[in-house]
Amino acid sequence: xTTSLPPGFADWLRLREPADAAARSVELADAVRDRLPADRPxxxxxxxxxxxSMARWLAPRLPGPQHWxxxxxxPALLALAGGGLTAADGAPVTVTTRGSDIxxxxxxxxxxxxxxxxxxxxxxxxxxxxxxxxxxCAGHPTLFALTVSGRAEFTPADPLDRELADAFNAHQRRTVxxxxxxxxxxxxxxxxxxxxxxxxxxxxxxxxxxxxxxxALTVEWLTGWVEAAVEERPHLLGPARTYTRWRLVEAAAGxxxxxxxxxxxxxx
Length: 268
Hints:
268 residues, alpha/beta, two-stranded antiparallel ribbon, 9 helices, 23% strand
């Protein structure tokens, strides 16, 4: 995967981290514990780790000593991934960072893993990349969090919501650099890929629920959401300008609520 990350991406990850933490499935995190060995330090490989938000959320929910291997192709993001973690029972958690193209990982790269994780990743991959990743993960419990499912619900609603959502979803499925992204089809594609290996997958809804306390995140997300929709369908530019001005004023004032749907998957 050779696409470059936009400027300010680390700031976006920092802004969204509390909403991600609130949304991820505690039920699936609890179920992970039943799949892990209790007689040795855990080794967890986190794919597309960014600055390490998944480790910060999950490591304190798992008992015993842990070693996390953070796979990320962007060295600037890896530089922001640090330690300072402890397990649920106070055991130490160590972290290693690894510059990786996660779409090219093999089973050998994950051979020592007791658990494989990722967060907000699958919708940015192609079907072939998901197939390769699933093949590498097969044989290990795998927790993939926060994959977008293509639904955004606004309160108050507006007639343009649905048209912009359809345009945004089409943008998420776009072909860029020869890669056709899965976007909101990623959950179904990943479940099917694990199924071809005879592995069942538990899926749970994990929506962002953005209200007045998340106004800054709502403004940032909404701006990018509309921009992507208009890029995909330029005829929406005129009505989208009026829509955006109104929505941003209301969002900044905490008068907009958004439910942005995601799903978490636990395989193995």
